[in-house]
């Protein structure tokens, strides 16, 4: 029996697999590009980090480390996923609106795309391939 090519292009849909991919890929990007470099070069980051909310450089860096290391690990695992997205979204919003307000959309596209990814996850939840789903059983 020949497979209908239109059916192959239009379904079946796997939204939970898509959420798993978005969670893991977004979390790994944040960890690799932002979190781990800040942790590995803590003293250099402390000297140069912006402090747009006037909390002090150390508090700002610790908050950034929380949002860029612990939260992505929780998001990737799908544990407390919606809650873990909130610090990421707050940090990204502060970064895009207060630290880099002069950036064009093209300059800040990575940040805006991360807002889209983590905003989607915050709205949708972790999906069935997550610790959140296992704990609900």
Q: Could you give a short description of this structure?
A:
With 137 residues, the chain is mainly alpha-helical. The protein contains 7 helices and no strands.
What are its keywords?
137 residues; transmembrane helix; transmembrane; single chain; membrane; DoxX
Characterise this structure.
- It is a single chain.
- With 137 residues, this protein is mainly alpha-helical.
- Helix content is 74%, strand content 0%.
- The protein contains seven helices and no strands.
- The protein has helices at 5-10, 15-40, 42-48, 57-77, 81-99, 109-124, 131-136.
- Helix 4 (57-77) crosses helix 5 and helix 5 packs antiparallel against helix 6.
- The termini are far apart.
- The model has no long low-confidence stretch (mean pLDDT 94).
- It is found in: Cell membrane.
- It holds the Pfam family DoxX.
- Belongs to the DoxX family.
- InterPro entries: DoxX (IPR032808), DoxX-like_oxidoreductase (IPR051907).
- This is DoxX family protein.
Describe the protein's topology.
Layout: H1 5-10, H2 15-40, H3 42-48, H4 57-77, H5 81-99, H6 109-124, H7 131-136
Helix pairs in contact: 2-4, 2-6, 4-5, 5-6
Mean pLDDT: 94
Number of helices: 7
| Sheet of most strands | none
| Helix/strand structural class | mainly alpha
Distance between the termini: 39 Å
Helix content bin: over 70%
Uncertain segments are none
Radius of gyration: 18 Å
As a percent range, the share of strand residues is under 5%
The shape is globular
Transmembrane segments: 12-35, 55-76, 83-100, 112-131
Keywords: Cell membrane, Membrane, Transmembrane, Transmembrane helix
Membrane topology: Multi-pass membrane protein
InterPro entries: DoxX (IPR032808), DoxX-like_oxidoreductase (IPR051907)
